[in-house]
Amino acid sequence: MATGPAAKSSRTVVIAGVPDGLLHNDVMADILTIHFQKSKNNGGDVEEVTYPTSKKGVAFVTFEDQEVVESVLKKDEHRLEDKRLSRYYPLKVTRYCENVFSSVTSVLNMSIFKDQFVLEDLIQELKKKSTALSFGPLQSNGHISVQGSFPAIKLLRDFLLLKAKSLSEEDKKGESQSHQRPRRRLQQHRLTRETSNSVHGADGEKQVVVLDTDTYHYMKYIFPRIFVVNGDVVVSDITDGDITTVYIENAGSRSDAGQVLRVKEKIENQSIKLHEILRKEKIYLGEHTRDERRRYKLACKSLKPYYPSVLIIPYDTHIDVIGNAQDIFDFTKDVNRKVQSLLQHR
């Protein structure tokens, strides 16, 4: 729905490359407005320009019609030109929050395949199969870094798990004739532990779910009851960068694999819903003074009660703001306004 709660964020683009410090902020906002209203720039009616923002040289432009966003993004090159500027400035225009959880990094241990495959050939096969992923160099220890969307990385993990399982089944057949290859079962177990998004214990009482770390943090913050279960089920987690592995297992006196499975399905279903709607915006602090950083953190803390569905994760160099697109759009805009107001009244 165009008039729904996410309408404004869907009508907004992010502008990078805005010349910083040359003109008064209001003048630069006016120049941006003129640029994105011109038909030669595929523009249209501008509802609002947010400038400055927490990151120098970046502005938000909100159009009255969502179709203008698509038109503006199709233009190959945007040049900011105005008689008040001494030269033109190239601008980079992207969709607001388009890369929220679309880029995570996972390290895969490919050494477990080295006895069966030439690892370089296997990596080439993976690259052809997973064109949406970016592969780093293969390390001497068999590790390789993979970057891309979380769903794409999960598909790759599933593919590798199936390949490992097929090798394990070949070993089982071979063991009836020979006992020379006992090592592969151990390797398959390691891959299962490291890469699968669903692992069944021998007794069917253990499950594993691999989640995007930001999604996991948001789930624990907004939906803590999902991870609070009775004494018969234990939920634990291990976080490794962008990936968090959640372990669900039965700890009660009576075995109930069905209960463990229900908890796993509840976590998976909620994570799928959140992956569709969650967005993340970074409030960058690296270019600001210590006092300005403090003001940004104070502004976030004071505004947080008005945004109960927004998760704030502060770091030394930036602040992650996670929530639905409209909430984080409004929140970051309010933070910028509050900080600018505080700086003007120093």
TrEMBL record:
Origin superkingdom: Eukaryota
Keyword RNA-binding appears in the UniProt entry: yes
Keywords from the UniProt entry: RNA-binding
Stretches with biased composition (Basic residues): 180-190
Domain RRM: 11-98
UniProt keyword annotation of Protease present: no
Residue segments, region Disordered: 171-200
GO molecular function, one term: RNA binding
Transmembrane intervals: none
Name the record gives this protein: RNA binding motif protein 43
Organism per entry: Otus sunia
